[in-house]
Design a protein that fits this description.
This protein is of the alpha/beta class and about 170 residues long. It contains five helices and five strands, in the order βαβαβαβαβα. Strands 1-2-3 form a three-stranded parallel sheet. A two-stranded parallel sheet has the order 4-5.
């Protein structure tokens, strides 16, 4: 630090007042985003928090499981960017719809790619196929997750990942 991009993933552990206090502190640190300070379905809590702090706020992405659900939420966006998980969104087709829908609302949708490399790689292909996603999340240590995978995706020395070849 300061050459690092700071992001805070809270996994829904804060009350509204705690999330505001932490969010204000993260704003002072120029944090890139504040992930999952509240339960994903607390849309009004997210709207209130997003309006009061200067750091982008995103959900964990595990509770948003349908493109109609995210469409309804984005009509009055509770987050700075959306998030969803391939395994919870019934696969690549629905996730693709959700990413297109978020794009229609001029919003990024960062796929959850944490976990087994096979669905992480599917998420990477979605990220590379859309202009409204930036980050690929890798479970660490990677070897704990890579059982049965011959050629897992790993970041290069600059932290960048690329689509697998072959």
């Amino acid at each position: 630090f300061p050459d690092l991009t700071l992001m805070h993933d809270a996994e829904a552990v804060y009350t509204h007042s705690e999330a505001l206090k932490v969010g204000l502190a993260l704003s002072e640190l120029n944090c890139h985003w504040f992930e999952a300070p509240l339960n994903d379905l607390d849309l009004q809590g997210y709207r209130n928090l997003t309006a009061r702090i200067n750091v982008p706020v995103i959900p964990a992405g595990y509770a948003v499981s349908d493109h109609r659900q995210i469409g309804g939420a984005l009509r009055d966006a509770p987050w700075s960017a959306a998030r969803a998980e391939i395994a919870s969104t019934t696969g690549i087709t629905t996730m693709n719809r959700m990413m297109e829908l978020a794009k229609n609302f001029d919003m990024d949708l960062e796929p959850v790619t944490y976990g087994h490399p096979l669905y992480g790689t599917a998420g990477l292909h979605l990220i590379l196929g859309h202009s409204n996603a930036t980050y690929y999340e890798i479970a660490y240590p990677t070897s704990d997750w890579e059982y049965g995978v011959v050629n897992p995706v790993h970041p290069d020395a600059n932290g960048m990942v690329r689509a697998p070849e072959g």
